Design the sequence.
């Protein structure tokens, strides 16, 4: 993986991880409807982070 | 109050939610990519636009183009980044971004960003009022620089003001404080008016019995400026040891008053001013590099009055507002415009105050020349033959103090010069300064 691409993957992981952290901090302040919506996006975000981490892992093992 | 119209350009849906939750009084719209953002910007009016620079997994900073587009529509634009990469942030600023923040602390940062946005709107609305009432200048260059610096007034970034004596440094510092949203007081101190020991006592305060004459606990300027702004004038005259002590207090936001082992805390913002170039002071080993790095966030240079002559008559008009109007002969006006004004605006103000109380009829060139030759020491200090309950010694001390202050102002704070001119001892000088500035904490220089 080229340095530029590597930087993008790391950026994606970091950026989404920060969103998860923020969402966790806000979660208790949300009403039920907001919580449901947020939890759903948290799942999607976690999947995205996993994908990016796998992309990273794959590139290192190639 | 109308809701602020906000566009959030962010591909991360979770972060969209987080930002939205932190915006209390906004009408929000979202875009997840450049094209969607362009369309919304084209068809709607927004007050503020939050832009993530990387819009998508493999995006190449297309957010920068959104910044450019938003600025074309004169929208206050805030860049969000998770990397904090300096080059990228600088690039965003070069595209016109007004502010940026590092993702991750939205619950704290968003309200500050909004405050800065509101402040920036206020500054734009107040523009005419600022330059006709608070910092009088018609000079376009200075106006632009002041507006630029006021944009950062609500940040805690330290500001350094450079400029010759009497050029308006204290007025500018006060203006920055007024737009800072800091609720504490504006506290100013002229570092050149104190020797090292007295300056330490003034800044940090002291405990009763800390030294001879410390008859009671005294709160220092650092503590007085808690929640507000501490303006350190003539910072270049501060000793290296004091710089070191102050640096520690600035970094820790805490300090020990003289003679005390009880730590005090204070949240103050630093604005400093100096007559000399700090780089020169560092080279001459009169200023510590680490101290300079800490106090030098943003820098602004105020030109001397003789380089902004268009300000002369607006300043005179301002100084005589609600007072006796002065009339100058043609040759006097010509002289005023050509005069070098070594003491700058302060010298001009002293002269105007003098003529307001002493002139009769049209003021000619010869009267101005006479005043300037004579100097301001023996004028403009009103003497009363009534003690009004004061002890005679106290009254005489007060007059002495006023003369010292006036001389300090006229000489640009040159203590040695003042001592020599007034033929007084260092001890007498500092005892008067201490006596009256101790009584009135807010007395300026």
Sequence:
């Amino acid at each position: 993986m080229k340095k530029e691409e590597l930087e993008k993957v790391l950026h994606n992981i970091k950026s989404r991880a920060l969103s998860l952290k923020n969402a966790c901090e806000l979660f208790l302040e949300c009403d039920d409807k907001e919580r449901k919506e947020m939890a759903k996006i948290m799942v999607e975000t976690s999947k995205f982070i996993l994908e990016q981490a796998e992309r990273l892992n794959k590139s290192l093992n190639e | 109050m109308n809701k602020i119209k906000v566009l959030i350009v962010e591909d991360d849906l979770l972060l969209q939610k987080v930002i939205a939750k932190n915006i209390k009084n906004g009408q929000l719209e979202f875009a997840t990519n450049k094209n969607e953002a362009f369309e919304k910007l084209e068809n709607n009016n927004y007050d503020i636009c939050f832009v993530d620079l990387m819009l998508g997994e493999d995006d190449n900073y297309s957010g920068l183009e959104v910044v450019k587009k938003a600025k074309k529509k004169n929208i206050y634009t805030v860049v969000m980044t998770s990397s904090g990469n300096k080059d990228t942030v600088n690039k965003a600023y070069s595209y016109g971004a007004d502010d940026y923040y590092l993702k991750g602390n939205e619950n704290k940062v968003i309200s500050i960003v909004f405050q800065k946005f509101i402040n920036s709107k206020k500054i734009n609305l107040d523009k005419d009022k600022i330059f006709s009432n608070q910092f009088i200048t018609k000079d376009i260059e200075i106006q632009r620089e002041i507006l630029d610096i006021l944009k950062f007034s609500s940040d805690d970034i330290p500001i350094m003001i450079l400029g010759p004596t009497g050029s308006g440094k204290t007025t500018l510092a006060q203006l920055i404080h007024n737009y800072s949203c800091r609720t504490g007081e504006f506290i100013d101190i002229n570092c050149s008016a104190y020797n090292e020991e007295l300056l330490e006592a003034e800044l940090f305060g002291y405990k009763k019995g800390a030294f001879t004459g410390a008859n009671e606990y005294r709160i220092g300027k650092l503590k007085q400026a808690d929640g507000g702004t501490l303006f350190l004038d003539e910072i270049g005259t501060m000793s290296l040891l004091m710089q070191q002590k102050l640096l520690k207090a600035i970094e820790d936001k805490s300090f020990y008053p003289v003679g005390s082992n009880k730590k005090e805390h204070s949240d103050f913002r630093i604005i400093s001013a100096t007559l000399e170039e700090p780089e020169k002071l560092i080279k001459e080993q009169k200023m510590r590099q680490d101290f300079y790095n800490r106090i030098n966030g943003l820098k602004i240079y105020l030109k001397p009055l003789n380089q902004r002559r268009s300000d002369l008559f607006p300043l005179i008009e301002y100084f005589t507002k609600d007072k006796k109007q002065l009339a100058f002969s043609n040759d006097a006006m010509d002289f005023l415009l050509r005069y070098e004004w070594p003491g700058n605006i302060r010298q001009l103000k002293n002269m105007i105050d003098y003529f307001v109380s002493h002139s009769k009829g049209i003021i000619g060139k010869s009267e101005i020349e006479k005043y300037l030759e004579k100097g301001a020491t023996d004028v403009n200090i009103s003497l009363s033959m009534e003690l009004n309950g004061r002890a005679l010694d106290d009254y005489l001390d007060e007059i002495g103090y006023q003369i010292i202050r006036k001389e300090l102002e006229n000489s640009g704070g040159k203590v040695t010069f003042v001592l020599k001119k007034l033929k007084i001892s260092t001890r007498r000088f500092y005892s008067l300064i201490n006596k009256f500035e101790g009584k009135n904490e807010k007395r300026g220089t």
Summary: The first strand of chain B starts at residue 4 and ends at 9. The domain at 135-301 of chain B is CATH 3.40.50.300 (Rossmann fold). Residues 54 and 118 of chain B are 26 Å apart (CA to CA). The first helix of chain B runs from residue 13 to 22.
